[in-house]
Known about the structure:
By secondary structure, this protein is an all-alpha fold. It has helices spanning about 5-10, 15-25, 35-70, 75-85, 90-95, 100-105, 115-120, 125, 140-150, 200, 220-225. Helix content is about 45%, strand content about 0%.
Amino acid sequence: xxxxxxxxxxxxxxxxxxxxxxxxxxxxxxxxxxxxxxxxxxxxxxxxxxxxxxxxxxxxxxxxxxxxxxxxxxxxxxxxxxxxxxxxxxxxxxxxxxxxxxxxxxxxxxxxxxxxxxxxxxxxxxxxxxxxxxxxxxxxxxxxxxxxxxxxxxxxxxxxxxxxxxxxxxxxxxxxxxxxxxxxxxxxxxxxxxxxxxxxxxxxxxxxxxxxxxxxxxxxxxxxxxxxxxxxxxxxxxx
Length: 239
């Protein structure tokens, strides 16, 4: 007698409502009864194993790539750092040729700012004897904005400007000396302002007095924000 037959006999000898429920459950074989069923089961197992293998390969490759880039490789890291060419010169090298600018900066609020923080890496410039007599290119306004663009996270009292409204031409050095941090006082309006047309009526490229380089056409309030003096004797930008 097979195990299945003995199980059927045991169920048939039971009585009551529970016995009826057990008899209603079909006793299906736990193994494929045909070659086709066995083949399908084998294919399912093979597909599952293949999917698992692919998943493990992908995860392993990603982990290996991540470790290769961000992992701890003492020897490789040391070799890569040693192979780098220095691109920044020492601060002391700059002052050997640019003594006047260094002296002006050393006495200003910019004394702790490295020359190359604004001028960029200059090791090649310092090493090239032919280039030491040439003036450096002036840093763009974006360099100034890196520190001085208005931001709520900066310390109270740190000089900040709203880039959208503060001299929109973007030529910071037209008014500010980057080494001494001194502000060039804008020229005062030398004529009465009452009963006059807009500033740009006369102060324009083709007007009686052309706009200075770097200026743009703007409303009177913008012009007078720099060039008009208040009752306290100060320009708006100096208060």
